[in-house]
Amino acid sequence: MANEQSGRETNAFNALKRCQKMNDTNKIRDSSSRSLACSPLSAAILKRRFLRRLIIALLTSAVAWNQFFQPVDRLDKLTLNTTIISSVIEKKKHAESDNDHKDPPSPASATRKTAVVIFTHLINAHPSLDPLMTIYNGTKRYLNGLPEKAPYFITVDGIKDIPKNMEGELFLMENQENRNKYDEYIHQLQMHFKDHDNVKILIAGKNIGLANNIRRVIDNLSPDTKYMYLFQHDLPLVREINHTDILVTAEANDKMRLVGFKGDDPIQRPCGDDIVSESGIFYRRFKLWTDRNHFARIDHYKNDILPQVTSVFPEDNMHKPTRLNCTYFAPYYYEAGKGDPYYKHTDASERYGFKLFERVKRGELAYSSLSKVNIMVMERMGVNMTELETYKSG
Fold this sequence. Notes:
Among the domains are: 108-337, Spore Coat Polysaccharide Biosynthesis Protein SpsA, Chain A (Alpha-Beta Complex); 353-389, no CATH class. It has a nine-stranded mixed sheet, sandwiched between helices. The chain has a two-stranded parallel ribbon with strand order 2-6. Helix content is 49%, strand content 12%. Helix 12 crosses helix 13 (372-380). With 394 residues, it is an alpha/beta fold. The chain has helices spanning 2-24, 31-38, 42-100, 108-111, 130-142, 176-192, 209-220, 243-252, 298-305, 314-324, 326-329, 353-361, 372-380, 385-389; strands at residues 114-120, 143-144, 152-156, 199-203, 227-232, 241-242, 258-260, 270-276, 282-286, 294-297, 332-334.
């Protein structure tokens, strides 16, 4: 009996294997034939097969789930770490940049807000650029807070024609030697600044004087430029000036239209009210209008000053309005005009005192070309007037 039962189980097992083999090898392609071939055990086989496939599917899904999410998690962590590291590197770069350059980069409009203008004309030192570069380098050194790429304008006035009356004509006149100096000076100037995008050189076709050169500069300014420093080529800065404070104070006080700086001479006759800036710098008005080194609003020059100017030098016309309307035209002087000078006069044009005397001695200027004012200034500055008079007949 046991042997008979065992035989039936063996036969059933072998039949199951044959059925599975036929299914696996696709020998039974018709579903009805496949059902007949496996019909004695089809329900049991399908149940086990279903369970087995379900278990395998669950295990496979679990493994896939684990493999899928773990690398993503690691990738996310790697990406996060990379982002953090990149951020740290960028912060370090900015910190190093800030250490190397104390002021952060300025927006373009802020960079152009204030222009620096340097006025030049032919002098005996030309074609050397030394007098000009003394002025230029001084602005870079002493105007604290001025953007590195602030616009610069360098004007070159034309050579004067020789007039019929030479009295008081102390500038160099048109001749071949002076023309050669002038042309070479312009060439050297253009070569030196050819790679400076923020430096513009304005050359006058003829002698037009300081006032008209100011007009030319204003015509060439960017709309973003609201203020300007005006420097003459023989008045180099020798002391620090807080440009940032001047700009911030001017922005906060519309009445601060001009800011002057103390030179060698004392400043007298204060008028109007004072301004004390947030950083404690003291500005006081004085009835002294000068076209020497100063800071100014562009619109004040355009609308209030230049319409009144008919002379070569603006100060010739501006003394009277300043006396009559001090609270409008008088400049505020930086640090109330106290302390040591902020610039010195090198007299590059050789029009005063001993330098003028030397030109007479060299025969470059006739004594008759000296005006009464020239002689008075020379005497006041200590020139030996007895020796000077020996050149009267020359």
